[in-house]
Amino acid sequence: MSDIAHFFSPVNFSEIVGETAYKEQQFGSLFTLHLEDNFPELEGFDIAIVGVTEGRNSQNNRACEFAPDTVRQYLYRLYGGSFTPRVVDLGNIMPGHSTEDTYFALRSTVDTLVRKNIIPVIIGGSQDLTYAQFLGYKDLEQTINIVAIDSVFDLGDPETDITNTSYLGKIILHQPNYLFNYSNIGYQTYLVDQNSLEMMNKLYFDVYRLGQVRDKIEEAEPVIRQADMLSFDITAIKHSDAPANPNASPNGFYAEEACQMMRYAGMNDRLSSVGIYEINPEFDHGGKTSHLAAQMVWCFMDGYYNRKSDFPSRTNPDYLRFHVVLHEEKYEINFYKSKKSDRWWMEIPYPPHANAKFERHTLIPCSYKDYTLATNNEIPDRWWQTYQKLS
Questions:
Q1: Most buried one in 27, 215, 247, 320, CB count within 10 A?
Q2: Is the pTM of this model over 0.90?
Q3: Which of 111, 112, 110, 114 is nearest to 122 (CA)?
Q4: Distance (Å, rounded) from C-alpha 69 to C-alpha 290?
Q5: Alpha helix (H) ranges present in the chain?
Q6: Per residue in 201-239, pLDDT tens?
Q7: Residue 25: Cβ within 10 Å count
Q8: Is residue 309 domain-resident?
């Protein structure tokens, strides 16, 4: 039995299913489930569903702890489509004596699964669980990138206790520091303190306003492709599409855009964990948000089973290489375009004497738009920010 088994309570199948009988191709039949005392062996799976029934640190949204099983009710009804999922549902991590105990259980679970090349799909629970998700990478001896799809930054006051609105401040100040980059997708300016925005710029983190992303959703793809872990706050989706949160905003992403971004996440070859947080069934109308979350998980799986495994090699003939010289030969950028997927990357110069732990960040995802900017003698923002962090 796995050493994380004691953290989990089994899937309450009879309560989730009710009178439903699943067809052969529905997830309720295709998934391997942790039932009663029969904790599954972890070999041979690609993805693990991890429910976390923890909401004590969620401001004004504690009932989000009930979300995992309500999402399962809709998830199990979905069909596998063109892919046959090798998915295990481990059940729920129950609240510990303290929230620190819950964090430890989730951290240990993420660490174990990532080491086994199994992607945990975490269904929370409150978004402060992102901190525990991050801690799961602590002992993996690499710096990582976080992408959060969120209407705010959740920096909070690092001097106070952690909540779902302050977890990011705790991550940034964590020592040892193994966060290389944080990206926010979908922040809403009227909900964000300008001091927080200035801090993001000073740290060379990249943040993208809601309108900027919605104007061209495909521009979110290279941002998400850079992530090792993704945290999705359901309040990033507009209230009419995802009402299950007392803090939901009338503005936000549409349901289709949320699903598209989750598919981008699934297609990201380096992404190794994802969490969906802050769904409160008490505020859900007809299960609309839980149903959407289930479809978001489906889209993630669809992306995963369509991965191209095309991260560039500097000498691989499967890539087109473009060399651009800017600012009177002050800067040079090498671009790589995959012949498999038409996706783009750009190379950041890295001093050979520099700390080797940052080497994995010298080829960063980009878009054709970045290439056209460079050919017009403009340095792409994401190249410049990474260059500053590596210099």
A1: 27
A2: yes
A3: 110
A4: 9
A5: 13-17, 27-30, 67-75, 99-115, 129-135, 167-173, 194-202, 210-215, 220-225, 255-267, 288-304, 368-375, 381-390
A6: 999 999 999 999 999 999 999 999 999 999 999 999 999
A7: 12
A8: no
Q: Indicate whether 310 belongs to any domain.
A: no
* Cα dihedral 190/195/200/206 (nearest 10): 30
Q: What tokens appear for 67 in the block?
A: 């979300």
Tens of pLDDT, residues 131-166: 999 999 999 988 999 999 999 999 988 788 999 999
Task: State how far the alpha carbon of 153 is from the alpha carbons of 196, 228, 249, 309, 354, in Å.
Answer: 8, 18, 15, 31, 30
Nearest to 246 by CA among 231, 235, 236, 230: 235
**Among residues 152, 35, 154, 127, which one has the least CA distance to residue 88?**
35
How many other C-beta atoms lie within 10 A of the C-beta of residue 72?
30
DSSP codes, 116-157: TT-EEEEE-S-TTHHHHHHHTTGGG-S-EEEEEE-SS-----
Answer yes or no: is 126 within a domain: yes
Residue 153 included in any domain: yes
The Cα–Cα gap between 311 and 336 comes to: 10
Q: What is the pLDDT of residue 19?
A: 75
**N-terminal to C-terminal alpha carbon distance within the chain:** 46
CA pair distance 50, 56, nearest whole angstrom: 18
Q: Token pair for residue 36?
A: 């009663």
Beta-bridge partner residues of 326? 331
Radius of gyration of the chain (CA): 21
Residue 259 vs residues 266, 297, 299, 309, 372: alpha-carbon distances, Å: 11, 8, 6, 21, 28
Structure tokens at 244: 């299950």
Domain total of the chain = 2
* Dihedral over Cα of 129, 229, 26, 279: its sign: positive
User: Whose structure tokens read 């191709």?
Assistant: 25
Helix, strand and coil percent figures for the chain, each rounded to 5: 40, 20, 40
- Give the Cα separation of 377 and 328 in Å (integer): 9
Q: Which domain holds residue 345?
A: 319-390
- Average pLDDT of the segment spanning 250-277: 98
Comparing C-alpha atoms, which of 316, 255, 256, 321 is closest to residue 289?
Answer: 255
